[in-house]
């Protein structure tokens, strides 16, 4: 079976990189980078790595759901299985592999101390249905993690159960809606900056609100006068990210908060970028009523791969009665759970998630906060801002900063530096893969043309940043010297070549088929 016929992951998503299609080797391997087919291609249903006795005669309890044929699971030996998944792991790029400069997503180091504590007996093996008396230590972890978050934000209450940042946004808006309804105020409009994360308007719509966008000024920030013109008696909330998605501190935030409150609305802050100000600025002092916190961004819990997320929401005194259950409280007799929206939590919006939140993330976040201390967290924010400004200052003569002046935790560039080369932001990002770097965030925020958003976090050394800076300079200079052709071919050294991402998204191949002629005729192909 030749490369064109192989129904591999590559065939389902782009150009196959092995064999005679560019690797230069018979096997498709590149030295120690081993070409790895799908597990279905390696095994067969007739093989098995273990000896199993015949199934004795029995009465099926499946009724009409009994299987009519083999489900076709591949059979492999134990070494084959181990090698397969090890090789796949070697094709994955993570924060433990190298520099991961995704802006906005904040891919920071996860200290191994956190992981060790999360696996301690009594923490790693507790069950949420255990009697409260048997999980006092686990409840103490949730309580003290919440206490840290309240102290760092200056807010009187925190909802720990939201499963992610977007979930936290929705909970904050649900609390705002509950507070408005309690006072008989039927407001139905939410103002959101154009540069906001897409989850902001989505959360507002999910809560029944109409969304009105407000543009940023030439400085990349929300103009308070422009915002004031949009405020009115039908505005329920203003949602602002600070530092914002352009990596800039909203210098007029207190003025914006005051205008929002004067209009009878609530002020929601997207706390995704709290890692840039933690220990230095308390959100409560800025006039914020609700703010979610991404534990993975600020407090080093794992991020990526779809989870596990955790997005606690801090609430002002005006919103705290509406916090969702469950809530951990401390009593003279120990820790207790409030699990129903009645009695002492009769104004609560109720339960928004099964059980009590992402407990393993609470353990990791608390371990991080306690090991760092308040002074350490302040230093984290300072170092994150320093690293980002070092990148900005070092690259501003080669790349083009999107806005004038220093940044906060991430440096934002646009694509003017590539003008006349035929090279796009995407081409530059693909070329970074060949250099051994995960690309920065591209084309976001949408308000900046050809955006390149770089967030080094506080965990990278100067040597690492210098290497990244040197590579970025050389790539941009190469684009002007050599033109677009080499960039259009990138990546050349990755396990898979460049994909036609648009076709792959519109016509995904979601099922592997053993015969080539059974495959979809709408296969995504390489763009080059």
From TrEMBL:
Keywords: Oxidoreductase, Pyridoxal phosphate. Signal peptide: none annotated. Residues 383-478 form the Glycine dehydrogenase C-terminal domain. It comes from Defluviicoccus vanus. It catalyses: N(6)-[(R)-lipoyl]-L-lysyl-[glycine-cleavage complex H protein] + glycine + H(+) = N(6)-[(R)-S(8)-aminomethyldihydrolipoyl]-L-lysyl-[glycine-cleavage complex H protein] + CO2. It holds the Pfam family Aminotran_5. Gene3D superfamilies: 6.20.440.10, Aspartate Aminotransferase, domain 1 (3.90.1150.10), Type I PLP-dependent aspartate aminotransferase-like (Major domain) (3.40.640.10). GO terms for molecular function: glycine binding; glycine dehydrogenase (decarboxylating) activity; pyridoxal phosphate binding. One of its GO terms (biological process) is glycine decarboxylation via glycine cleavage system. SUPFAM superfamilies: PLP-dependent transferases. Residues 1-28, 486-528 are annotated as: Disordered. NCBIfam families: PRK04366.1. The gene is gcvPB. This is glycine dehydrogenase (aminomethyl-transferring).
């Amino acid at each position: 079976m030749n490369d064109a016929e192989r129904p591999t992951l590559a065939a389902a998503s782009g150009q196959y990189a092995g064999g005679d299609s560019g690797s230069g080797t018979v096997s498709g391997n590149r030295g120690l980078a081993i070409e790895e087919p799908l597990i279905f291609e390696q095994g067969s249903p007739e093989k098995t790595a273990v000896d199993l006795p015949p199934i004795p005669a029995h009465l099926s309890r499946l009724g009409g759901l009994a299987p009519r044929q083999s489900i076709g699971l591949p059979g492999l030996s134990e070494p084959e299985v181990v090698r397969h998944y090890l090789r796949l792991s070697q094709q994955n790029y993570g924060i433990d592999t190298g520099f991961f400069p995704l802006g906005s997503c904040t891919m920071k180091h996860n200290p191994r101390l956190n992981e060790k504590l999360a696996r301690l007996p009594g923490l790693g093996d507790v069950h949420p249905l255990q009697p409260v008396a048997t999980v006092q230590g686990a409840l103490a972890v949730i309580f003290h993690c919440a206490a840290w978050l309240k102290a760092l934000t200056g807010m009187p209450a925190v909802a720990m159960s939201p499963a992610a940042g977007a979930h936290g946004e929705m909970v904050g808006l649900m609390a705002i809606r509950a507070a408005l309804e309690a006072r008989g105020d039927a407001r139905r409009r939410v103002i959101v900056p154009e540069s906001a994360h897409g989850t902001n308007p989505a959360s507002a719509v999910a809560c029944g609100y109409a969304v009105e966008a407000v543009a940023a000024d030439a400085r990349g920030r929300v103009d308070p006068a422009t915002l004031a013109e949009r405020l009115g008696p039908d505005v329920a909330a203003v949602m602002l990210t600070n530092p914002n998605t352009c990596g800039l501190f909203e210098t007029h935030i207190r003025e914006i908060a005051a205008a929002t409150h004067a209009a009878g609305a609530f002020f929601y802050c997207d706390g995704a970028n709290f890692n840039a100000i933690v220990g230095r600025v308390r959100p409560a002092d800025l006039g914020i009523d609700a703010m979610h916190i991404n534990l993975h961004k600020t407090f080093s819990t794992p991020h990526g791969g779809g989870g596990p997320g955790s997005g606690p929401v801090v609430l002002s005194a005006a919103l705290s009665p509406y916090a969702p259950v469950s809530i951990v409280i401390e009593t003279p007799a120990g820790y207790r759970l409030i699990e129903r929206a009645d009695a002492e939590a009769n104004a609560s919006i109720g339960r928004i998630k099964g059980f009590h939140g992402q407990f393993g993330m609470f353990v990791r976040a608390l371990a991080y906060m306690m090991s760092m201390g308040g002074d350490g967290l302040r230093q984290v924010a300072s170092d994150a801002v320093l690293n980002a400004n070092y990148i900005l200052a070092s690259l501003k003569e080669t790349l083009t900063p999107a806005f004038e002046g220093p940044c906060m935790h991430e440096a934002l560039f646009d694509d003017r530096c590539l003008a006349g080369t035929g090279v796009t932001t995407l081409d530059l990002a693909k070329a970074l893969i060949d250099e051994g770097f995960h690309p920065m965030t591209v084309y976001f925020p949408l308000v900046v043309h050809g955006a390149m958003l770089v967030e080094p976090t506080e965990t990278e050394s100067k040597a690492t940043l210098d290497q990244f800076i040197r590579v970025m300079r050389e790539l941009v200079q190469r684009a002007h010297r050599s033109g677009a052709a080499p960039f259009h071919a990138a990546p050349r050294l990755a396990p898979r070549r460049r994909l036609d991402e648009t076709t792959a998204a519109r016509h995904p191949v979601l099922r592997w088929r053993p015969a080539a002629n059974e495959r979809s005729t709408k296969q995504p192909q390489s763009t080059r």
